[in-house]
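Design job #97: recover the sequence.
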């Protein structure tokens, strides 16, 4: 929408202003344009409630706690430079994204979980020996078990049907 409006402008400065200031901006108007010119972007949203099994909840909780533990183990013996803190924070954010994928259950859930479990397992295997051995063994076992289940029996891994709610009563 903004690109179409930018193409309709006569000068490059107006085109750039349209892209930066938004689609309701016109030459001579305030920074974000007049309220009457702002497009109505509300649309019908399909609401759905995901019904997850107890096993799914336990799986997600165990893996979230495992990644927090793993991140804590990685940060503790190291100096904690800004780059390391950023990387470990991104590990937690990616795990949260993977949790969303598990609950949404798209066709690529298996691939995402195999990649995440493999990466976490590699981190466990290459951790320095300063890390507590029993915790490291538990984390490694969890990732090996999860990886094995996702590779060989993914259909029974997280059975949960999703249901769509009626949106007519929610308007």
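Job complete. Output follows.
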């Amino acid at each position: 929408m903004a690109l179409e409006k930018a193409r309709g402008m006569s000068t490059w400065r107006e085109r750039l202003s349209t892209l930066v200031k938004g689609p309701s901006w016109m030459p001579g108007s305030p920074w974000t344009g007049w309220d009457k010119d702002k497009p109505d972007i509300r649309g019908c949203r399909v609401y759905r409630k995901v019904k997850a099994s107890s096993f799914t909840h336990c799986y997600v909780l165990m893996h979230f706690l495992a990644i927090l533990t793993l991140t804590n183990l990685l940060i503790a013996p190291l100096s904690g430079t800004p780059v390391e803190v950023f990387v470990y924070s991104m590990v937690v954010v990616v795990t949260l994204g993977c949790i969303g994928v598990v609950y949404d259950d798209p066709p690529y859930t298996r691939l995402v979980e195999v990649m995440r479990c493999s990466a976490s397992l590699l981190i466990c295997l290459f951790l320095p020996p300063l890390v507590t051995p029993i915790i490291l063994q538990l984390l490694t076992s969890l990732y090996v078990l999860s990886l094995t289940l996702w590779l060989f029996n993914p259909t029974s891994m997280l059975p949960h049907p999703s249901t769509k709610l009626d949106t007519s009563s929610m308007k």
